[in-house]
Protein 1
Amino acid sequence: MKKVIYPALLSLLMLFACEEELDINTDPNTPAQISKGLALSAAQGSIATVIGGDLFNLGGMFAQYYTQSPGAGQYTQIDEYNLGTDYANRLWTELYAGALNDLEFVKDESMEDEDPATFLIATVLQAYTFQYLVDVFGDVPYTEALVGNENISPMPTPGEETYADLIASINEAMTAYEDSGGDSEVGAQDLIYNGEMENWVEFANTLLLRFYIRMASTSQANASAVMELINRNNFLSENAAFSAFGDAINKRNPFYEVQIDFLGNVNTIASNSLLEFYLRNDDPRVNEVYTVNDEGIYVGLDQGEGLSPEFSAVQASDFSRPDIEPTHPVFFLTIPESEFLQAEALLRYAGGAGAEEKYIAGVASSFQLYSQIGDDQDLIGEVDPEEFTGDGQAYDYNGGASFEENLEQIIVQKWAALANINNIEAWIETKRTGYPVLTDPEDPLYEEGRRIISLASILPGDQIPFSLFYPELEVQRNTNIDQKNDLTEKVWWNQ
């Protein structure tokens, strides 16, 4: 296993390290002794590095929170929908050789120690990590993975099989824990919930609901399982956040450490898709998602517009940029996401009964979350969310609308609530649902604050990315992985 390293430092190491990349089937750590608590800390740090670093930036641009700034070009390929096969080498390695291997060790040790509480923690975090791998890449090694030299070329497992097995593994771990009870032995080495099992049971239930909602448009949709979770009503009551950051070099939030400090805050600026949505609705969350420019106003660009020659003379400082502080937490799951998942579940499987209540709770908890993490807390803290969700207000829920209209309302608000919170989750939900809708900015009916096809896109027609290429290093080493043709290939639940 590995030493506990601050995730921001891990991001820098992954970005600039010249040593050979690790293979997902080789345990990269050969120490004499390590505890399951330290391994859990390391795994959580690895997940936070990726979710709060590379995938935070990618999701921010694909979800159209950010776009590439004129005067710089670090992420031109993202706005062009032109990512290469080497893009995901680092994050794939960190998740497989780092987080997933470490969590497998935690599970093995927990089984040996008869510690079902810690086993549950490791199981749900493994499921969480594998879910993102499937949702971002498609079919990935699962059934044959994490066995070291026993199988150096694991076959990709079909995504639907991975999902089914992950759900089963969470339920089995939950049953084992509930049958025996007891506290986790890792205590404060759990950097998310400090070993508090009530929180982890809530996390597990919320994660299960996310799995089922992802599958809602597939043959594996399971209304009875969803309603069982809804009736159990034991979802997130405390945000799951990795907050072990400090305001010192190599100890800061990974996005801040790399994008803002090391690269000089010159690449990512506000995309008009979200910025104009906030401004059009007088939404105070804009104050926590973006900074004002050097003239003290909010300014963004349409997605991909910064690559146009007409903007070659302007700089990032002319625009609003992501408002991420050194100690900004990396959020794994949040109460707003949980509320919107429940709202969608009730819309789909309960005829809409109770969906409005959960929708309003999602908006309110989003305002509350931004007020807690921002540097302008009083501004949001003084705003009553009911001013936005009341009758006739900007975010009023229309219970008499069609299913699709209500689904759009829920997802658009989830999109607005995930900015700078969990950007990759926002992108995944946009491609699952198609909301916010993609519109042509030249269309007379276009309204500012909607998603558009990136103006820099190299893809033909109205095509957009639905997955990433497998990392080239893994394709070279694993003879059972065939590289996909392009980024438009959809993951299993998105067919």
Protein 2
Amino acid sequence: MKNLFDTCVLIAIFTVMLARPAYAYLDPGSASLIIQGIIGTIAAAGFFFRTYLYKFWAMVRSKPKKDASTDQED
């Protein structure tokens, strides 16, 4: 796992060092699309974690089921 992390860090460093200016234009439509994507990702992640958090709390708070054979009287 550490080797994978070290490799990713080295690749990131070399990518930043070898970057050249793009001389590109970013119009307002592109910026709003990027912001919309970020907000949508945050909302989807919040929904995903909330759903599984509720399932986790339901599992933790549930009462243990009684054995049916011990409740019967002979």
